[in-house]
Amino acid sequence: MRLHHVPGSRSIRVLWLIEELGLNCELQLWSLTDGSLRSAGFRALSPAGRIPALEIDGRAIFESAAIVQYLTEREGRLAPKPGDEERADFLSWVNFAETQANILQALNIHHIFLRPESARSIPLMRLDTKRLAVTARAVDTHLQGRETLLTTFSAADCMLGFNIEAVFRFLPFADYPALAAYRDRMQARPAYRRALARAGDDVIYDRDFYEVSDVPG
Ligand SMILES: N[C@@H](CCC(=O)N[C@@H](CS)C(=O)NCC(=O)O)C(=O)O
């Protein structure tokens, strides 16, 4: 099994789940900025040129949500099965995590990657910060009185749990106490710690918090 990975990116969801499942996996490292994800070689594994991709069982799978579902079905663990009462909740939270990650990706582009800085749009940054706050409030409300997204830890927590560190780069954690406590619980999981130790240092964020007002122009 080989995971195509960038430190700090969505591939950590998969690495974390692999650690929770106790599977062996090689890592192949890529860069978000050197153009290599656009190469024909990488696009043969992931057609949109996106991380993660997982080589497994003689083929490549792309899209973190698909990979996570494939692994839980293959191993028969960490996800409710079709027909289970919590199956619909599982699918909803797995895909919700990607809705939230797409907003985070837009904020990363606005605050960090877009050059020149004068190309950045403050109205779009404000809009995406508000859209992120809607998702954070929804999870914070859902998590009140709960330890995990479902009644027990599942791969949906690997999908969403990975986002939360990034959420608090753009929103104050004091406004979302249940979400902040969930982040702490997820970060304390031994499998998450092992995944981060293997994953390499985050290459995206160079400060703890990004304010829209920090942006020139
Ligand atoms: N929906 C995809 C999104 C993948 C994605 O956008 N990954 C980012 C890293 S977190 C990426 O590869 N970005 C490179 C780019 O946008 O060029 C998934 O969940 O796998």
TrEMBL record:
<protein>
    <submittedName>
        <fullName>Glutathione S-transferase</fullName>
    </submittedName>
</protein>
<dbReference type="InterPro" id="IPR036282">
    <property type="entry name" value="Glutathione-S-Trfase_C_sf"/>
</dbReference>
<dbReference type="InterPro" id="IPR004045">
    <property type="entry name" value="Glutathione_S-Trfase_N"/>
</dbReference>
<feature type="domain" description="GST N-terminal">
    <location>
        <begin position="1"/>
        <end position="79"/>
    </location>
</feature>
<dbReference type="InterPro" id="IPR036249">
    <property type="entry name" value="Thioredoxin-like_sf"/>
</dbReference>
<dbReference type="InterPro" id="IPR040079">
    <property type="entry name" value="Glutathione_S-Trfase"/>
</dbReference>
<dbReference type="Pfam" id="PF13409">
    <property type="entry name" value="GST_N_2"/>
</dbReference>
